[in-house]
Predict the structure.
Amino acid sequence: MLDVRNLTRRFGGLTAVSDASLRVEAGEIVALIGPNGAGKTTLFAMIGGFLAPNEGTVSFCDQEITGLKPHKICQAGLVRTFQIVKPFAKMTVRENIAVGAHTRIKARRAALERAEAVARQVGMEPMLDQQASTLTVAGRKRLELARALATEPRLLLLDEVMAGLNASEIAEIVPVIRKIRDSGVTILLIEHVMQAVMSLSDRIYVLNNGGMIAEGTAGEIASNPNVIEAYLGHGAQERLAQAGTDA
Amino acid sequence: MKRFWIAFFLFIAAAALLPAVVTSSFWLDFLTLTLFLALLGQGWNILGGYGGQFSFGHAIFFGTGAYIQVILQSKFGISAWTAIPFSVLGGIIIGLFTGFLSFRYGLRGSYFALITLAFAEAFRILATSAKVVTNGGQGIYISLNREPAATLSRLQFNSVEGYYYTALILTAVSILLAFWIENSRFGAQLMAVRDDEDAAEALGINAFRTKMTAIGLSGAVTALGGVFYVQKFLLMDPSIAYGPTKSIEMLIVPIIGGLGTIFGPLVGSIFLHGLGEASKIVTSGLIGDRPGLDLILYGVALVLILALLPNGLIGLMKGEWRRPGGKKAKQQTPEAGRDA
């Protein structure tokens, strides 16, 4: 469904993403992980049309979308959320979600009805008439998700929707994401909350220093020596092994 | 939605009956200009209030509409009615032209404000130098013809009432337009672009096209204000047309009344004009005729409103105000933890 090939993005002398490729098949939940500053959000920005890559291509449903404007990409069925949430502060939750719904629905009333249905799907029903600016962090993250979902995407890019949430809030949102996938939406997510990543994803990509260093199932990734080095520092794999034999 | 229609019909009914009570032509003229300013304010509000694009040179649309209306009549002998669509079209074209140049290059916030200010100044100078079309600084006139038989064909009224009701109709139409904006897909997308352009783009909204539509609509309404001005005063010169006075009046009215609200420009205009007259009456009544004192009073009141009412007078009606120097007392939009 999504085919990202050899994307590179440089900011002056800094190469934020270099030669990164990934594929997402229809119906999957794929996670993109990596230490802070690895280039995950930059990669998302290039897929979503917010940044033009220096090299490489992005194809969605066999159509090349590299360099298209974000609104075109959204209309094609690929939508992203933002790590730094961007609520429409002066609108209510219902109106916020309706903005997403309007991408496919012209009539105001139908869009507001669709907003209500989406709010139910992500468990925001009680907050429908609340001003977006009065929401908690968890509420805002969920609003990002709801708005994106209201555009009726085929592929949903979630940028750290669980960051800043407490354990019980995370426990609430994990099944919501799984339900979205079961309703037929493919998901690619950036996440630091490992317990969620491990339980949700079918496959995991690991990005470090702008390059893709590993790809596999949760089990494969957890035991991959490159990944352990990237997260815990150079030589960590050996020290861990050492500690294991000493014990 | 129901509340809007009640408020709208109450306003129309009250305004339609006012001339029966207000018989002094001075005060009726005062009310006419209040409605006229509400119309201009609504023109600005479409782009500035709903779209978040603060223009400091909205006179460019007012002046262009007014100039086309007056030139077509006095230089080409075209009838007032035939001239109107051209004047409005002129407002739209100038809107799209300035909009294209600004939005294409992503000018936002103070940069957009500055470029509109510059455009209006450029047009003022252009109107002063293009003497062949505009008669330059001495101004251009429509010949006065107040024959009762010519009232409708030449759109010149014998009575103050004629202009009053015309202004009322135009203001009512502009209010209906704002109502449509609040309840349409276009409006929802425009407000989304105002609140966060990136998020709007991510949700499938063509931010550029949305802003272009808004500035076109805004230009049309404001140009219509220019048409009214010309038909009432029968003259136009570069500083009335493109000077900063009109631009500032137009933006201050919706800001005082309530940005991005349907009745904000009307409420702001009533308040601003009322305050101007009231401060004149108070100062001359209390301490005799001291020129300028009323302006000080007027200025103080404006500063207080801007400082204490983040959402204007319409916001105050909903109980939103700010305690001086302190935290926001009661407001629906606390900014705390916004980007957490």
